[in-house]
Amino acid sequence: MEQNKHEIDYSEKVISIKGLEKSFGDYHVLRGIDLDLYKGENLVVLGRSGTGKSVLIKIISGLLKADRGDVNVLGQDVVNITTEDLQELRRRIGFSFQNSALYDSMTVRKNLEFPLVRNRKNLRRKEIDEMVERVLDAVGLKQTINQMPAELSGGQRKRIGIARTLILRPEIMLYDEPTAGLDPITCIEINNLINRVQENFNTSSIIITHDLTCAKATGDRVAMLLDGQFQRQGKFDEVFATDDERVKQFYNYNFIQ
Description:
alpha/beta, Rossmann fold, 2 domains, 6-stranded mixed sheet, 10 strands, about 35% helix, globular
């Protein structure tokens, strides 16, 4: 699948991580990693379950504290940030959770209105309606506006979850396993949506996945997380052009077995 044409500004880092370490007891998850995300870039972080991929984006968004290292996000030092500044920073970051994190007791409309009412106090009813309709149109689900989450398919819930993050026009998108648990056709739809979001909303994104089809379809660059460190980074084909058995096994599991 051809990705949308977009520009990446390699002179501007929207995320810069140096020497990041994180442990849980005696289990060392991240062992001094370095990573940069450039403005307009889709960066895929690959790795097996339990390798620290989700821990990484939770640290970026301030949901977890790093043990050591520097984490700079949109010019803010996340390691030493104040609570007030962190709340402001989070408004500039969209977090697409693996389970979509919709409120089951609210309609799609109310789910999408929630972040607006919470963060944009002065909006008029007409403005709210227009913003809800705009993001629903962006994910191709305007017809679901009055439905409940229980009435939606897994793929639709995922797309509504992405729409809810987009409604505040974030500068950075963090996708946590966006294709997990979805059928192959729906996975393609989600991959296409991630690329459209990058193109139409001018986002910079980190996409956490162990799905190589997703990685190949959405990633401008791929970083392979192995044994708590990024062992390989580059274009998809560059990352997998190696005799490293750990990398080859990962590729074979996705594309051969």
